[in-house]
Amino acid sequence: MNKFLLFGASFAFVTIPAYASVFNEVTRLVSKSDLNKEAFAKKYKAAPHRVVSRVSGATVTLPWTESFDDESSFDNFTVIDANEDFAGWEYVDGKAEYCCLFADYDADDWLITPGFNMVAGKKYQISFRANTFDVASPEEFSAWLGNAPEADAMTISVVGKTTIAQDNAADYSVKVTVPADGVYYFGIHCTSPMEDAWTLDIDDISIKEAAAESAPAEVGDLTIVPDPLGELKATISFTAPTLAADGSELSALTKIEIYREDTRLIKTFDAPAPGDKLTYVDESPANGDNHYSVIAYNEVGAGSPALLGLFVGEDIPGAPQNFSQKIVDGDVVLTWEMDELGWNSHYINHDKLTYNLWDSADGFTLSEISKGIKAEDNSYTIEDRAEEGKQRQIIYCLQAETRTGTGSRAFSNTLIVGESLRLPYNETFADKKMSSRWFQSATDSKDVSALVEDDRNNDGGAMSISGHEKGCEISLFSSKIWIKDEPKLVLSFWYKLPADGALSAGLMKDFEVVKLNGLEPAGDWKFASFDLSDQTGIDYAQVTFRYVAGSEPCYIDDIELTATPLSLDTTVEHPTVVARYSVAGQCVDENYRGVVIERRSDGTVAKSIR
Fold first, then answer.
1. pLDDT, tens digit, for every residue of 514-560?
2. CA 17 vs CA 12, 144, 424, 542: distances in Å
3. Selection from 573, 516, 580, 521 nearest residue 546 by Cα
């Protein structure tokens, strides 16, 4: 994961447009793959939360269900934050939710129901639904019964340790018995590792006596097929049971009922024969997740329910894929792809897709560009944007929309737009300030590019680059500089580099390599100069330094990118030579004999033979 840091500083030394500003803060942009979760985190922080361990003394009578339609129902549950990391179970939008967003440890958190009486020898049916934030965020949990609302009392396994990773709810239904009469509690134990987990939601808990042993077993071969073109229809097919729960053969059935969302009876088959193949088309499901239960009956009563949930109707769009921006002839061109199926892997009408577009400097504060965009070729052009206004980093946000709703947002790569600086470009970091914006790309937030006083020319500033560990890579980029069709282009600078580090320097365009040159280690300040004249076919570029970290930081100072050619004139005369260097990069005085590189007060660089 790459992270981008933006540095800003007051105007100095280099000719830039009159809109130059003072920037005193570092702005961080995370990679676009993390922006959806970062946005969720921002929303989560803004909401009130009450993650505390508490014990409820509430009891209920079976059969009992809890759909969390009312927030007050959550007060009847015991919540245990066993690892005391202040991440735990809460009531969120009609569900019980564990969120590990700010967890410091792997989860160890219990959600325990009110107490209820159970009788030894009887079978009970416990069911619930669970889902996670998305398919990329797995959660781990188990389910238990115990004789007290305490973690140590949860000793009867109901659902073994399970990993789930899906945003539409999965049904769990288990038959259990208890060893002795008494009051019992049902507990969900979340044990998700902190690295990839996000949220675990629990809903629709049901505890009741199981069907009698001589009642019908579950129906067989239950399938539910949604309409392939998004119509609100679902075809439900199954085979009537031929056996009772105890394995004995059934002589007859009185009826089979189909329920939607547990309580709404939508179809009754009267007196079907055991083994009959039955089909029903539900023509009024909700557009979205639907949960069905099918129950067979005989003269003893209701049998065990068969449960199945699925998405019906037209899906909402998924996030646009491979969303990227690039500069083409001064325009910003956005391109993307759309998956054939929607967020829940079901039908969407691509002919009716429209798009909403924003831009942003940080991925969170969005400025609307346009809504309802029709883009049959999955592209959109913002004309004359590349060289307009102040230089700034920019990221675009795109969202698809259909009649059923809006999809998740996608974020583009980061580019720099705005009017390019002009040659000559000079950066001395004087007084620990920068004359224009600089950017950092790194693999860890502890990788640092910092202004320091340990400089080469006694102007009170240089740039240091250090990594969080040896071998990590940090790249530093300047603002855009216009170089097109320059007859000569030379990059020069001073640097210090530890022997176990590696530094390369050169040009990039839009954070992609144009040309990089490696440098030798240098314990003291050393001069470097590269002829980049063969790269002036592009319109603009960024001066770039890439450091593979050694045990110590590297340092950079006195950066110049100039179109002034190096002269071999042996009779060069100039009244104000600022400094002289040997070809090895060592500072020399006026008595030095040989090839000398001179830096002059007007910003030019010349080579002379003395």
1. 999 999 999 999 999 999 999 999 999 999 999 999 999 999 999 99
2. 12, 68, 13, 17
3. 516
- Domains along the chain with CATH numbers: 3-17+420-562 (2.60.120.260), 28-40+315-417 (2.60.40.10), 48-209 (2.60.120.200), 220-312 (2.60.40.10), 577-609 (no CATH)
Give the pair of three-digit tokens for residue 27.
Answer: 């702005």
C-alpha pair distances (Å), 464 with each of 23, 563, 585: 19, 26, 19
pLDDT higher at 270 or 567: 270
Give CA separation, 131 vs 128, 139, 163, 286, 287, in Å.
Answer: 10, 9, 10, 19, 19
Query: How far is Cα 272 from Cα 278, in angstroms, rounded to an integer?
Result: 9
* Among 106-110, 542-546, 602-606, the least confident range: 602-606
- Is 541 in a helix, a strand, or coil? strand
Q: Count other Cβ atoms within 10 Å, centred on residue 279.
A: 10
For residue 52, what pLDDT band results from cuts at 50, 70 and 90? very low
Please name which of 132, 11, 39 lies closest in space to residue 421, comparing C-alpha atoms: 11
Tokens of 69: 């339609």
CB of 542 closer than 8 Å to CB of 479: yes
pLDDT in tens, 261-286: 888 999 999 999 999 999 999 999 99
Rounded to an integer, the average pLDDT of 319-329 is: 94
Q: 127-145 in b/e burial notation, b at 16+ Cβ within 10 A? A: bbbbbbbbeebbbbbbbbb
Please, which residues have CB within 8 angstroms of residue 113's CB and are 6 or more apart in sequence? 60, 66, 76, 77, 78, 185, 186, 187, 205, 207
Question: How sure is the predictor about 54, in pLDDT bands with cuts at 50, 70 and 90?
Answer: low
Burial classification of residue 305, based on how many CB atoms lie within 10 Å of its CB (0-12 exposed, 13-18 middle, 19 or more buried): buried
pTM exceeding 0.70: no
Q: Classify residue 462 as exposed, middle or buried by CB count within 10 Å of its CB (0-12, 13-18, 19+).
A: buried
Least Cα distance to 100 among 3, 198, 17 occurs for 198
CA 190 to chain centre: 22
Q: What would the DSSP string read from start to end of 205-267? A: EEEEEPPPTTSB---EEEEEEE-TTS-S-EEEEEE---BBTTSPBPS--SEEEEEETTTEEEE
Better-scored residue on pLDDT, 570 or 35: 35
User: Alpha-carbon distance 185 to 426, whole Å?
Assistant: 72
